[in-house]
Amino acid sequence: MSTSTVMNTVTNPATYALTDSWTMTRRELARWARQPVAVVVNLVFPVMLLLMFGYLVGGGRGVSGAYLDYLVPGMLALTMAFGLEGTMVAVTRDLEKGVVDRFRSLPMANSAVLVGRSAADMIQSALGLTVLIAVGYALGWRAQGGAGAFLGAVGLLLLFRFAMLWIGIFLALVAGKPELVQAVQILVWPVGFLSNAFATPEAMPGWLGTVVQWNPLSQTATAVRDLFGGPGGEPGHVWAAVAWPLALLALFFPLAVRRFGRLSR
User: Fold this and answer.
1) Is 5 part of a structural domain of the chain?
2) How far apart are CA 142 and CA 113, in angstroms?
3) Which residues of the chain have pLDDT under 70?
4) Residue 137 structural domain
5) Mapping DSSP to helix (H, G, I), strand (E, B) and coil, where does residue 182 land?
6) Helix, strand or coil, per DSSP, at residue 255
7) 249: Cα within 13 Å, side-chain hemisphere
8) Domain count along the chain
9) Is 123 inside a domain boundary?
10) Are 94 and 100 in contact, with CB atoms under 8 Å apart?
């Protein structure tokens, strides 16, 4: 290790960690070129759900106004909860194949592997949001809240994704093996469908509506609907849509980093 590297590690650890994380992010992005089918599937799947629920299944129980205006923000929030298996498998694969052990032999921040993987996932999530919003506009949906509200809604969606991502990373580290990720990923489905993504809680049985209202995904969907100016939005939910992901991050981010440190020793 060079003298300059040692000094950089000691005197500026934050910059050193960011540099390592960006290196690992580029490593994950390079996989996209080798696995284009997986990238396309991740982008197309939420579009298929939007079309299916919007035109084939229908829905909108209790919704006042155009159902598409209610459905699109709900689908955007739902998409942020799904599609975590790519990151979960990548983390467990690196552990299983000893890739992390090789990284640990280098002068690299211990958290860079997880941070780089999460950064790549967030880039793909932003791309997926862009595609789904474009499809929504093509179907006739319009955001009515203005540019600032639009950016605020996108920010809430990405914040929720970031929190869900670290929950997924922690669960993947608990699972330990890529073949077990599929079983763990199933746990995400109740979070997605026990929400107000497709129907209002008021149209559900009392106990179920209460569960749905407390779902963090429902909080994000309701806040996003308000910012987009569509039906089903409530102004007071913006703070809850910020508080829930931050609370989940405060819990699962350190748990994931600690778990990763133990498994990679």
Assistant:
1) no
2) 39
3) 1-14, 16-17, 20, 22, 24, 28, 31-33, 35, 37-39, 41-42, 45, 52-62, 100, 104, 108, 110, 183-185, 263-265
4) 26-263
5) helix
6) helix
7) 14
8) 1
9) yes
10) yes
Q: Which amino acid is at 49?
A: L
Query: What distance in Å separates the CA atoms of residue 39 and residue 20, rounded to the nearest whole number?
Result: 24
Question: What span, in angstroms and rounded, lies between the C-alpha atoms of 205 and 127?
Answer: 36
Terminal-residue alpha carbon distance, the chain: 21
pLDDT digits (tens, 9 = 90+) for 5-16: 444 444 566 675
In a domain, 193, yes or no: yes
Tokens found for residue 187: 């746990």
Distance CA 251, CA 242 (A): 15
Could you give the C-alpha distances from 137 to 40, 197, 261, in angstroms and in order? 20, 18, 44
DSSP string across 191-211: HHHSSSSSS-GGGS-HHHHHH
H or E segment to which residue 24 belongs = helix 13-34
Read off the pTM. Answer: 0.81
The pair of structure tokens assigned to 154 is 């996108």
Q: Which residues 6+ apart lie within 8 Å of 186 measured at CB? A: none
Supply φ then ψ for residue 148, to 5 degrees: -65, -45
| Helix/strand/coil percentages in the chain, nearest 5 | 80, 0, 20
Residue showing tokens 């499809």: 135
What are 132's two structure tokens? 């789904």
Enter the tokens of residue 123: 């880039």
Structure tokens at 242: 């910020």
